[in-house]
Design a protein that fits this description.
Layout: H1 10-24, H2 28-68
């Protein structure tokens, strides 16, 4: 049994890859993958920055409330 991604079989994945190859060409695919990787890494970095900013703000607020008591 072959693994399924998003409930797609091997045949459907091959057809999708062939269509992508025909649409973009062999030279353009690595460039697209590279730009997608950069976009994903920037998104993850933005998410990590947002999480750390939220943690910093909650820590500052709890420190202020503890100092007031």
């Amino acid at each position: 049994m072959t693994p399924c991604i998003f409930n797609l079989g091997t045949g459907e994945i091959i057809v999708i890859l062939v269509v992508v190859l025909l649409l973009f060409g062999a030279r353009r695919i690595p460039e697209l993958a590279r730009s997608m990787g950069k976009g994903i890494s920037q998104f993850k970095q933005g998410m990590n920055d947002a999480v750390s900013e939220i943690k910093d703000n909650t820590t500052e607020n709890s420190d202020k409330s503890a100092a007031e008591k």
